[in-house]
Design brief:
The chain contains 3 helices and 13 strands. With 201 residues, the protein is mainly beta. Helix content is 14%, strand content 36%. Strand 11 and strand 12 form a beta hairpin.
Length: 201
Amino acid sequence: MIPRVALSKTLRHFSSSARACVHISHIGKTPIPIPPNVTITQSQTSLEVKGPLGSTSVPLESYMKLAYPQENVLTIAVEDAEVKKQRSMWGLTRFSPFPYILVGVGYRAALEDDPRGTTNGGNGQRLNMKLGHSHNVYVPIPAHIKANVPSPTKITLFCTDKHLLGLFAARIRKWRPPEPYKGKGVFIGNEQIRIKSVKKK
């Protein structure tokens, strides 16, 4: 007589149903809603997006597939989702331009005119921030970015290119990254950090 534990190891379980082992990008498979005032033009190597605030271009790989299941809905797919590079580019290409909101905990910022004007490629304005240093931090705003300061501790950035917007937001955050003990610093959007406890002797 074979014991129950040994019997379960000797038996092999089979299933007649097909096993699904296809990798799917959860970000890439999400449909993209197209506003009515935005036009999209597709070419072999890029995707041109034009709207009331400007235009931008998104590079497309040869294995990217675009479809319009509905009138104002765009979906992105790849030829073989099992390939790691195609799967990673699938989620990266699925873009959604949205404004970055920078929140300063314990610090203040103001929007003022730049004395240098537009000589260095700026739009004539700069951010005057008090970030706990012995001096104020002045950051000129590039010409392709629009900034707004709705409150002394909040900065809102707008741009048609999400990549350039993220670079400028990271540049501001670099002046005072959030620290883990008091939770002070420049946060991007709904960014959260884990607070550490102070070691007491």
